[in-house]
Amino acid sequence: MSPLWRDEVGAFIGPRQVVLTRMRRGLRPxxxxxxxxxxxxxNLTDWSAALAALDTELAKGQWQDASLxxxxxxxxxxxxxxxxxxxxxxxxxRLDHARFIMANTYGTLVEQWTxxxxxxxxxxxxxxxxxxxxLLEELRARVPAHNLRLISVxxxxxxxxxxx
Length: 164
Fold this sequence. Notes:
This protein is 27% helix and 34% strand.
């Protein structure tokens, strides 16, 4: 099957809930499965309960053999606006600059985060978003066991903006 026609599972992972939807691709995409659960006694700084709920549900056959897009709750994400700096010539320099800006706001926690910088026209400010690296690693480690192909992991704000 062509990757363009492969079914897609969308997941939202947050400290209070986990939600899944499966879309059948094709000429007329349609939702073929939905599921959601509330996390009992949520811990706003710990994602292990949310990932365990996701893992348990993904083990069911209805979610397997698809592409997976994940939106992570903004509770676990951090953002900053990064002003344009013409002196920065490469993506590595732009990412280092973004890391510096984030460190000025959030301190040494930035060392534990994976950063992403938005794309825009030269001369425009950019948005830098950060997710905990440990959360991303735990998520990536769980996905292959469910016969899914992880194609996107984004903070909720970025996913909503891109969908808009």
